[in-house]
Amino acid sequence: MASRYIAGQVAAAGGWIGFDRFMDLALYAPGTGYYSGGARKFGAAGDFVTAPELGPAFAQTLGAQVAQLLSLSAPQIIEVGAGSGLLASDLLLELEARGMLPAGYAILELSGELRARQRQTIENHAPHLLPRVNWLDRLPERFAGLLLANEVLDAMPAHLVSWQDGAILERGIVVADGRFAWDDRPATGALLERARMLATECAIEPGYLSEIALIAPAWVGEWAAIIERGALLLIDYGFPRHEYYHPQRDAGTLMCHYRHHAHGEPFHLPGLQDITAHVDFTAIVEAGCAAGLDLLGYTTQSTFLFNCGLTEVLARTPVSDSLRYLPLASTVQKLVSPAEMGELFKVMALGKGIHEPLLGFTRGDRSASL
Ligand SMILES: C[S@@+](CC[C@H](N)C(=O)[O-])C[C@H]1O[C@@H](n2cnc3c(N)ncnc32)[C@H](O)[C@@H]1O
Predict the structure, then answer these.
(1) What is the number of the ligand 1 atom nearest to the C-alpha of 235?
(2) Contact (CB, 8 A) for 117 and 148
(3) Which residues in the chain land under pLDDT 70?
């Protein structure tokens, strides 16, 4: 049980752990963490649905941007956190159809259970392309090509911070009467520094609670030293900083998913539910650019997909073929509707040595909002 394991880690740490550590253990503790365990996570039978799980239209449309980036850099892809493996298999099939198959498709995945599932998915959907796919145990030393991460930054552990009158506190976890309970301690180090900067920049008022992600921006910065030529394509839900730390969002963006119910209770069934925080895309671009990457584009998922030819992908299926067309139209609606994924999800490209405008950002680029 994840709860018992986490409680043991709290005791081992002297009775208190920060929320980032709790999130890390609840999601990734060996054997008992949500992503390390065997439960079905993605799709209708799981806890939440990601864009690739809705059907191949997402990967087919993304294929146009991926093909352009491969032609501008090198024919290699690394997908980070590949989930069930559907994006990998659908994208490889689309690139094959476009005559743009990469020489290699590597997957960087923390979960051994998901690695096995990814292999099985590719074997089922695109068996002839499986020999091109390999799994990495660690970040490579050098890389040229495209790094793709769909809904990965939001799954990286974040800190919880509470701004009070004259104090900035880090929210953590203790065990009291056999249950997890919140406990706030003074924030220190890099977290305190970031929290002070946000208080000034976003005029944060006492009583405000939110997350601060230190790991995700640092991870993006790490890639800057690895990428020789190419790009990171990051797709996730989130906002620029001024929207993230908006006065009205005073309880943060933390969300848990269990069997298609979204709620804000991370102590509910640790290890059996997903825990996420939205992405502060300003923090991501600052970290990437400080480490030597260029911002190549930032826009909503809806604008990005239309720029990449979503309408043409839809038109591949005749309207008269209602058995195929209707589910496809429903998928497209979920991908682009402002009430679903269209506006909340953003696409950001950061790169090195890429000097041409990218297809996905030709119209409606929102880089100036960051
Ligand atoms: C919400 S799931 C998204 C899965 C998939 N990309 C999709 O769109 O269906 C998050 C994934 O990110 C992986 N992940 C999180 N942090 C990671 C890291 N630092 N390196 C590699 N994978 C990571 C998790 O194991 C999981 O597969």
Answers:
(1) 8
(2) no
(3) 38-40
